[in-house]
Write a structure and sequence with these properties.
Two copies of one chain form a homodimer.
Chain A lengths: L13 H10 L3 H14 L2 H12 L2 E2 H8 L3 H13 L3 E6 L2 E6 L3 H13 L2
Antiparallel strand pairs in A: 1-3, 2-3
Helix pairs in contact in A: 4-5
The first copy, chain A, binds a DNA duplex through helix 5.
DNA sequence: CTTTCATATGAATAAGTGTTCATATGTTTA
DNA sequence: TAAACATATGAACACTTATTCATATGAAAG
């Protein structure tokens, strides 16, 4: 019942191979998924998201809070915005950023749960 | 009621600053969290995890399935194992890898949901 | 014990990324 | 209009990372 797809020994069933090939999302989706997680994969960006959990904030507030330059925060907010994790609202000279949706919180909480195991 | 922590204008309330500072996990946790998401932030690793959704697999099966070299897969499995996302089981010459727990599936599914919005 | 096979690993390279600095854009106020 | 301020952006740099190639390790079979 087993097939040999690579090694001498019979490793996994042919129907599993077909099932995986069928269920595997297309390359574009997988690429986008990795790109999304890449955005979460930087502690500065994670800190920014955590800060926005409480309230919307302007760029300089975040910079002050995290002890980083305004430029660094602005660059990272751009990345977060491109990934649709945060959204921006202009009020005069000031730009307020906030979480784009609740997925952000869910994903981060899942991550936290995994770490704390 | 507002304080000025950076700009001319009064941006956010002082109690929010205190709340954020209180709720923000410590630097080590935030670093670990970012490191975890970094692991998900590579399409090869995401593909490997997807394959393991169906069934445990040996290294050469995964390599064949994803059209990548055995070495590349082995290096990436090492990363996944360090992050405790997969576990290994030896059977003779063959090493079978499988998902370490269900968090993996949950995190990836949350990511997919965000993308498909 | 030697060969064979599956996997792991180290070094090298090419590509990607986060921060800083300098500066530009855009908005408000004098 | 000019000055002041918040934010955005481009270039440069140091640092990280994914893959490949060559080779080592570990296990089974002859």
């Amino acid at each position: 019942m087993c097939i040999d797809i690579c090694c001498d020994e019979k490793c996994i069933h042919e129907d599993i191979i077909h099932k995986v090939e069928h269920d595997l999302p297309n390359d574009e989706t997988l690429y986008d998924l990795a790109e999304l997680f890449k955005v979460f994969g930087d502690s500065t960006r994670v800190k920014i998201l955590y800060a926005l959990f409480e309230s919307e904030m302007c760029v300089c507030d975040i910079a002050e809070l995290l002890n980083l330059t305004q430029s660094a925060i602005s660059h990272q907010l751009r990345v977060l915005k491109s990934a649709k994790l945060v959204k921006a609202r202009r009020a005069g000279k000031t730009v307020f950023y906030s979480l784009a949706d609740e997925h952000v919180r869910l994903i981060i909480n899942q991550g936290i749960e995994h770490i704390l195991e």
